[in-house]
Amino acid sequence: MNNDFKKLTRSRTNRMLCGVCGGLGEYLNVDPTVIRILWILFIFFSFGMAVLIYFIAAVVMPDTE
């Protein structure tokens, strides 16, 4: 059994609020700053719905072990 798959988790080391963007950046191998900038744009274009999605993701995504 091979356990080399990546798991989407919140980051403990690269967090501003809850670590969701840091975790996404680590999972996608992208700088978390880019994810944060895109998330801010998403907040404006979704009329704030992205804030709700962020906090749902913070609850659903497990913390890094």
Write a brief caption for the model.
The protein contains 3 helices and no strands. With 65 residues, it is mostly helical.
Structure in words:
There is one protein chain. The protein contains 3 helices and no strands. The protein has 65 residues and is an all-alpha fold.
Write the layout of secondary structure elements.
Elements: H1 20-28, H2 32-45, H3 49-60
Helix pairs in contact: 1-2
Contiguous low-pLDDT stretches (5 residues minimum) are none
Largest sheet: none
Total helix count?
Answer: 3
Assign an overall shape: globular
- The whole-number mean of residue pLDDT values reads 87
Would you list the SSEs in sequence order as H and E?
HHH
Counted beta strands: 0
Radius of gyration: 12 Å
Task: State the oligomer.
Answer: single chain
Q: Distance between the terminal alpha carbons, to the nearest Å?
A: 20 Å
Strand content: under 5%
Specify the helix fraction band. Answer: 40-55%
What structural class is derived from the secondary structure elements? mainly alpha
Key words describing this protein structure:
single chain; mainly alpha; 54% helix; 65 residues; 3 helices
